[in-house]
Amino acid sequence: MVDTVITIRKALPADAWSIAAVHDAAWRDAYRGIIPGRELERMIARRGPRWWGSAIQRGSRIVVLEFDDGVEGYASYGPNRVPALPYQGEIYEIYLAPEFQGLGFGRGLFKAARADLADHGYTSALVWALAENERALAFYRKLGGRPVREAYERFAGESRKRVAFGFN
C-alpha cells in the first residue's frame, strides 16, 4: 500500500526554492505566447528563491500545496489592491506545477486562500487573469467568479487585456 499525503499549509522560509521552481514552470506553461518572450523571462527571473524567501519573511500571506514531501503549488493573497472595486480581499496568484494542473488542487488552494481571507475579515475577494489565458478564465468561472472589470497591462511595449473576477 502506498500512502500519499497532500496538504495545504502556510509557506515556510524553507519553501522559497520550491515555490520559485513552481513559479518558473507554471509561468512558462501559462504565459508562453501571451507575454513576449524576453519580458516573460525577465519577470520569472525577478521571482527567484531570494524574492520568495523575503516575501515569506515579511509575512506575506502564502499557502503551499505539498504533495508527499514536495511543494507543487502555491497561492498568495491579501487585501484588495484596487480600492475602486468593492471587494475586500484579493487572491494575487494561484499556480501549480504543470503536471498537477487539472486535478482539483487549484480549487483546494483557492478555498484555502478564501478561508484565510475570511478569517481576517475579507469576506469578498477579487482575482485578475490575463484574457488570453483561457485556462485561468475557465477556472475562475467554474469557481463561480463573475467578470467585474477589464483593464490593460503592458508587457515590453505590448498591451494585454486582463479580467477581474469577483467572488462574494
Short note summarizing the structure:
With 168 residues, the chain is α+β, with helices and mostly antiparallel strands. The protein has five helices and seven strands. Helix content is 35%, strand content 33%.
Question: Would you write up a description of this structure?
Answer:
This protein has 168 residues and is α+β, with helices and mostly antiparallel strands. It has a single domain, classed as Gcn5-related N-acetyltransferase (GNAT) (Aminopeptidase), CATH 3.40.630. It contains 5 helices and 7 strands; from the N terminus they run βαααβββαβαββ. Strands 1-2-3-4-5-7-6 form a 7-stranded mixed beta sheet, with helices on both faces. A hairpin with a 2-residue loop joins β6 and β7. α1 (16-31) runs antiparallel to α2 and α1 crosses α3 (49-57). It is globular and about 50 Å long.
What is the string of SSEs from the N terminus onward?
Answer: EHHHEEEHEHEE
Query: What is the count of DSSP helices, taking H or I runs of 4+ residues?
Result: 5
Q: What is the CATH domain class?
A: Alpha Beta
Strand line-up in the sheet with most strands: 1-2-3-4-5-7-6
Helix amount? 25-40%
Helix/strand/pairing category: alpha+beta
**Kindly, what is the distance between the CA atoms of the first and last residues, rounded to a whole number of angstroms?**
42 Å
Kindly state the number of beta strands: 7
What name goes with the CATH superfamily?
Gcn5-related N-acetyltransferase (GNAT)
